User: Fold ATP-dependent RNA helicase DeaD from Oceanospirillum multiglobuliferum.
Amino acid sequence: MSSEEIVPSFEELGLPASLVKSVKDLGYESPSPIQAASIPVLLNGDSLLGQAQTGTGKTAAFALPLLARIDIKQKSPQVLVLTPTRELAIQVAEAFQSYARDIPGFHVLPIYGGHSMTLQLKQLSRGPQVIVGTPGRVMDHLRRESLNTATIKAIVLDEADEMLKMGFIDDVDWILEKVPHPRQVALFSATMPDEIRKVARRHLQGAQEIRIAAKTSTVDTISQRYWMVSGVHKMDALTRIMETEPFDAAIIFVRTKTATVELAEKLEARGYSASALNGDMNQALRERTVNQLKNRKLDIVIATDVAARGLDVERITHVINYDIPYDTEAYVHRIGRTGRAGRTGEAILFVTPRERGLLRAIERATRQEITRMDLPTREMVAEQRVKQFKESVVEMIGSVGADMDFFRNMVQELAKENELSLEDVAAALAWKVQKKRPLILPPEEIAPRRERDDRRDDRSDRGGERGGERRPRRERPTDVNFVRYRIEVGRNEGLQPGDIVGAIANEAGIESKYIGNIRLYDQFSTVELPEGMPADVMNHLQKTRVRQVPMNISIDNGPEQPREQRPRGGDRPRGDKPRGDRPRGDRPRGDRPRGDRPRSDKPRGERPPKAD
Assistant:
């Protein structure tokens, strides 16, 4: 089946009134093509094989009809959604919760690696109707028998091609075998490689197939740029950009309601006319904020995705994604607030190094390149302030009118009485006026250290200049012997030291002070842990996933390399290669132990955490 027709309303798809109300409250006016084609099929209880690009609204396409089929009185899992990444799992769970806002007693639970198993077990005992999880953690719960499959009526495989790329497709196959028949299965994928087709033939007999043609979603009149940020001083970066960009009005997007208020307060403290716009505000207050933006009483609005849906203000010239969205549909909606009706607009995206995958996912889905931008320098900020100051003085001279004679005479008398030049008097007045917004920036406002941090982060984004990256030393107990362990996850997966600490602390219950030095390499990492780790703890850590990859932890018997001997550039450090005597790729695919990740010469950092 191929469909591009959009029906007039959600009501005509047969959804319950409560769900129709929810989607309208969220700002959706009519279904997207994938929603219009999928919702009736899933409402009817049939299985579905859907092919559509990321950012086309697939989450609502399966969440709405499956919510309509849930027995809210039954406190046990009825729908299981598998996603390739924890970010997508969280986002899909949040979408289910948003759509079910008018369904009392509904409970959805995201489960993924790196999160407390004890907490997840407690939450599972409460009987959520919908489970959204990554394959590895779902397998853990199935082995523990903490996830009951007897009551599951529907399974969704979201971003199936990404699960294939990340080596999860065997895990997905294993999970599907554990869910008894009869069950409804919905598989969504941007592409349909042979491996996905094989899964469909095994588990989706008689499924209806829907294919939605890909198309560019963003507006050609919008210039799109991104800045690679360390994430530590985004506020300073935002201020520099706002100072140097010639904007009329701007909307800044963040992920949380709390962030809208905090950012608005910080911008107001720095002299900007800014206000928050979020879902906690009542309708009257939201309308008042939008009207103030239209009437030039506000210049900047800080908003969440939900609050900004349908916002159309002609004077918005800039959209700034302070927090990158987890899915491309949200990105397209955000930047669509500018460049409307043929006007030009500017879209700026803040991206931390670990979010590069999301950036690439957006570029692929929109089929448009987002240009990297440099952060405005301290000198550029000062030059812009001087320019604006001069313009304001000239504008003031033209608007003072008859009173100008009085002040002119006063200045001349002041200069004559004190034997001062008119230039000195003007300079002193200018200095007094600019005190709150200095034209000469003090060093502490934009510290040189931060400039160095930006350049260091830029090097990190290009892959670094050395093979290993040492984590700053922490104070650790002197009465404990530490042993160096190797884990099969590295910088190519976007790994950060905090990921390792969080996974080990949560999954093994080890306090952070007992986690020693950490080194990050491209394809693996090392971490020091106390000697004599219990076997059951090590077995559990073996299967624990970090950045969606099993740690496969083992004692590292390789020598620690002196700093001067570490390879630079693209050379791998000693031992940074697959283990075993067989060459990479020699082992047939079917022989790979379930849960092992596929090896590839392509850096895993190219693999984006996809989101719908």
The radius of gyration is 28 Å.
